[in-house]
């Protein structure tokens, strides 16, 4: 399961680097070709689903290193390094690179937007962090956002989202199991979405060719940290035993609801809850 996903659709504005440059010079880009900036777990699932719906399309992946290029080529993704010399533009672009690996996240989003030709969709996968709710209360697409200047983390995301509007199984439970004891409060509410569902939602948004919109991705079953680990224990699928949460004063979360997004897009998740994902839903 992944964390909740916020996605912004905008209207602004071997297959390695050599392959992309050759493609750029030939000008051969199909109407359904896709560029994935940051083809990690989510990006690869998007590629898989995109190919199912557009069998003849080319899929490119922009990376910061060549470490996984062989894997991407095997998957049918044509990788190239960030900064590779190409003037080619793509009808569909999805930016799903994390902010942790760059000193200028908004700048990277801006550069990625220059690779979009404006015909299909440019999709930026963000986070639910910018929603101004941290008391385990309800939160949906219309919840106010955190003001710029309050938090460096949300500032980075909000600036990236503004750029887009002007022209998202590696869940936390694995980490907590490995830690055994975690210094965080057990009643903090989290919102989840399976990576496959984040990918299918992303593809759905891309296909709609929407402009200047923000959508919210989650499973509509918010859980506390403790509830998540109780379900993990109940599933019996893990050998390790979680000892517990020890925090008492860290912030609370928010309860996301994306009914509006689902209704508008005609989208429903494959995994309706974390309990369904683990096979312990009643």
Automatic annotation (TrEMBL):
The lineage of its organism: Eukaryota, Viridiplantae, Streptophyta, Embryophyta, Tracheophyta. PANTHER family: EPIMERASE-RELATED. One of its GO terms (molecular function) is isomerase activity. Signal peptide: none annotated. This is NAD(P)-binding domain-containing protein. It comes from Corchorus capsularis (Jute). Belongs to the NAD(P)-dependent epimerase/dehydratase family. Keywords: Isomerase, NAD.
